[in-house]
Fold 2-isopropylmalate synthase.
Amino acid sequence: MTTQHIKTDDVKPVSENHVKIFDTTLRDGEQAPGFSMSTDAKLIVARTLSDLNVDIIEAGFAAASPGDAAAIRTIASEIEGPTIGSLARLNKNDIDAAAHAIEPAQQKRIHTFIGTSPLHRDAKLKMSKEEILKVISEIVAYASSACDDIEFSPEDAIRTEREFLLEAVEAAIEAGATTINIPDTVGYTTPEEITDLFRFLKENAKGADRAIFSVHCHDDLGMAVANSLAAVRGGARQIECAINGIGERAGNCSMEEAVMALATRRDFFNVSTQIDTTKIFAASTTLARVTHNPIPRNKAIVGKNAFAHEAGIHQHGVLANKRTYEIMDAEAVGMPSNSIVLGKHSGKHAVAARVKALGFNVSKQKIEDIFPAFKRLADTCREVTDADLVRIVTGNAETD
Ligand code: KIV
Ligand code: ZN
């Protein structure tokens, strides 16, 4: 039993129109093959998440490995602002490991889960419905005695019978869960179905008014963002998402896409987030750099082509009025305007601005130091790309 009760002031009143952004880049995102991060890398990403002003950073899964527990604790000690969370299976050892890892944070959350669908109950857990309800009541209460911000997820909620899902959600709220997250663990749902499910749970779950409902979508059918937004239409007020949409298999809901959809179509959704959207490009490029996974050129919001126009008809339209082919501004997501191309005629101001936009926090002296390497490269090509600049800043230019 954890001896110390963790106080947190996260359970602050939020307006009905505020959608919390729960970022799981460092947990679900990191679980994807090819995205493992060292503690240092996780800390760099956590800083960019804090700059973005996300509400919650899920920093890892403390019981998964001593290294992950240490990384969560480092993030909990160093990052101010967002709530810091750890994932935990629904057992006391995992809850204790999570509570210990997040302990240094100012605001902290334990996110605990158990599979509820017939497949998970029968094939994986070998537990009856009654046994699952019992463990939810017991362990959520145990977690609540350790930390007053508890999130509960019925894993594979979408493929769980509605009546049983309702019972599981009610048991978790009754035991002290303050956030109820509904995961589409295998990316199976559709927008209409998930809107309806959220309406059903919010209208029918006893104690629903005491909890924030959250959505966690995977992208197996390419619908994670659409489904997350549809859940918001059904009453979800927290979206779980990851930078560049990384996560198990095809990934999680992409943070930049969900946030910019809510911002650009505020007229439709009538909700807002607290994200500083001008930090999105820096967060995206930082993650790509530390995980060595480049952003696809055509990636929505942050890809190189997202605000680029090559076709004559489009160029003509954009020159007359950029809204003809751009529904948002590159600057709104922190992307340097597409008209700025770095080449041999560029000066230090342009280089410094691009370096900053790419997520680096460097001194004037560093710009002076890298400028000769930049000029040498610029003399040999038509354009110095962002990737080139990253190599120069990180000192890898001459080796390539
Ligand atoms: O996809 C999922 O079900 C999860 C849970 C742990 C929330 O990641
Ligand atoms: Zn997931």
Remarks:
- DSSP finds 16 helices and eight strands in the chain.
- The CA atoms of residues 121 and 129 lie 8 Å apart.
- Strands lie at 20-23, 56-61, 83-89, 108-115, 150-155, 179-184, 212-217, 238-241.
- The first strand starts at residue 20 and ends at 23.
